[in-house]
């Protein structure tokens, strides 16, 4: 029997295990002095954390707070975790704000929160406990609400699929407004192993804590790992042998850097996983420098996948394993709904228990799910479909290109003309010419995918979660085309 199957937390869940905060009282009683939560300057044992949470829970209850509370994440990461647990323990739903929201955006989000107070009620597995926020089509953050089971099932399947190592202490060095890091912290607490957080991300401090053996598990986004690799290379650090599991998500991992990451953490299982705010876990794979850029892995053991025609969403209209279509999934980890009455809900498709976030892809002969791209970003040029993500991945494999964004500009003859915006890698030397890049692409992709116009950007727009903000880049390109001032510089040579 594999090790993962023997771990008790990989089995079906019952009782307090079905609640995100449920095991806290259990660990406070059974391992009261074990460190539960710590940052750069403060540590809390499970008994101390339990007491803090109960005190704040009592205050929330005495104020007859509304059923959903907007948590002020500007108070600091560790404080945010305690407040989050207190709100959830009171039977309410915690909505986690982003400290970088402008005042106007914060006001718009507050306007969506319920105002009426409510009595304390016991949490249940299907009751809402968390609202996170993702970028909406209008630029206003869109709240997505989850029930307890959607996360406790994610905790359970992590242990079932990654092995018992997933139930150990975790370092989650990011803001709690990013669901990946909040999830990592809650997983560590739920398992009784504890979590380490940072008030402000520092690649050097991460490496020091990992080198000290503080946490066998690291949850990180690609940009953080690249900074760690940069620090390690500059300081010629010795391999860090105590790390046993690295989980990468939030954006595409640059697989060309996998060998360097494996060299720095030689004993770590390095896992990439594909998911969405509305779906949680979807698929995962062990990091492989030679894997196709489109591959995102096999479905988690509690996820079913179906590929359907983009023109018809009926369940019986499957396109077959190897055809490209909309990716539908069924799992116990999907979200409940968006928050608010007038929210754009067209970003997801529902068919009974099945959900699609409008990503398109296919299941290859290798059994892996291959991601083509988001349906909304697909470009029709010269009568053919181009998924920008495919070309962006290809361009980012070029030694001189750090980031790339592909967009289509309307053209009466071709439907869309392909424009490429790139950012050069630091220290890459003299950038290649348009002719050089065109020849490079000619050996690797069909001609209809080749950009007609190229731009460079010294500053790279990103979303609050660290992903490329393609919408902002497209706006800058259109400003340049219309003659408006823009920080993007056309590259003409």
What do these coordinates show?
- By secondary structure, the chain is of the alpha/beta class.
- It folds into two domains: 3-372, ANL, N-terminal domain (Rossmann fold); 378-490, GMP Synthetase, Chain A, domain 3, CATH 3.30.300.30.
- The protein is 28% helix and 26% strand.
- It has helices spanning 3-6, 23-30, 46-62, 77-89, 103-111, 148-162, 179-191, 203-211, 222-234, 258-264, 388-396, 434-442, 470-481; strands spanning 35-38, 43-45, 68-71, 93-96, 128-135, 141-147, 170-172, 195-197, 217-220, 245-248, 269-276, 280-286, 295-299, 304-308, 325-330, 337-338, 349-351, 354-356, 359-363, 369-374, 379-381, 384-386, 401-411, 415-424, 453-456, 489-490.
- The strands form five sheets. A 13-stranded mixed β-sheet has the order 2-1-8-7-9-10-11-12-13-20-19-15-14.
- β23 (401-411) and β24 form a beta hairpin.
- The relative contact order is 0.08.
């Amino acid at each position: 029997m594999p090790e993962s199957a023997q771990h008790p937390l990989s089995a079906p869940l019952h009782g307090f295990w079905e609640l995100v905060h449920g095991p806290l009282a259990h660990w406070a009683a059974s391992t009261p002095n074990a460190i539960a939560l710590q940052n750069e300057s403060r540590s809390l044992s499970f008994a101390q954390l339990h007491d803090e949470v109960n005190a704040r829970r009592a205050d929330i209850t005495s104020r007859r707070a509304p059923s959903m509370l907007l948590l002020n994440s500007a108070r600091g990461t560790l404080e945010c975790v305690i407040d989050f647990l207190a709100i959830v323990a009171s039977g309410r739903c915690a909505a986690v704000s982003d400290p970088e929201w402008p005042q106007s955006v914060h006001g718009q989000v507050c306007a969506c929160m319920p105002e009426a107070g409510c009595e304390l009620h016991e949490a249940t597995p299907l009751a809402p406990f968390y609202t996170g926020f993702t970028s909406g089509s209008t630029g206003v953050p869109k709240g997505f609400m989850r029930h307890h089971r959607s996360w406790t099932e994610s905790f359970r399947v992590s242990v079932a699929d990654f092995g018992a190592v997933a139930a150990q202490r975790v370092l989650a060095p990011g803001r709690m407004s990013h669901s990946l890091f909040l999830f990592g912290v809650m997983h560590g607490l739920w398992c009784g192993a504890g979590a380490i957080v940072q008030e402000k991300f520092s690649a050097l401090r991460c490496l020091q804590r990992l080198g000290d053996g503080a946490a066998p598990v690291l949850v990180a986004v690609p940009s953080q790992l690249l900074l760690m690799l940069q620090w390690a290379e500059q300081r010629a650090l010795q391999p860090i042998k105590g790390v046993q599991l690295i989980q990468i998500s939030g954006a595409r991992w640059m697989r060309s850097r996998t060998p360097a990451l494996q060299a720095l953490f030689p004993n770590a299982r390095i896992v990439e996983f594909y998911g969405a705010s509305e779906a949680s876990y979807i698929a995962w794979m062990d990091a492989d420098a030679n894997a196709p850029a489109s591959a995102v892995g096999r479905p988690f053991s509690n996820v079913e996948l179906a590929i359907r025609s983009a023109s018809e969403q009926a369940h019986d209209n499957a396109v077959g394993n190897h055809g490209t279509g909309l990716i539908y999934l069924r799992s116990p980890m999907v979200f409940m709904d968006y928050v608010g009455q007038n929210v754009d809900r067209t970003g997801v498709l529902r068919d009974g228990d099945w959900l699609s976030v409008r990503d398109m892809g296919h299941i290859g002969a290798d059994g892996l799910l291959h991601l083509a791209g988001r349906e909304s970003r697909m470009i029709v040029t010269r009568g053919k479909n181009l998924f920008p993500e495919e070309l962006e991945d290809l361009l980012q494999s070029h030694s001189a290109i750090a980031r790339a964004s592909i967009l289509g500009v309307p053209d009466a003859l071709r439907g869309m003309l392909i424009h490429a915006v790139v950012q050069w890698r630091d220290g890459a030397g003299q950038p290649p010419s348009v002719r050089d890049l065109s020849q490079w692409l000619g050996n690797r992709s069909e001609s209809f995918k080749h950009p007609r116009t190229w731009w460079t950007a010294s500053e790279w727009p990103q979303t609050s979660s660290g992903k490329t903000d393609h919408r902002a880049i497209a706006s800058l390109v259109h400003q340049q085309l219309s003659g408006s001032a823009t920080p993007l510089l056309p590259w003409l040579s």
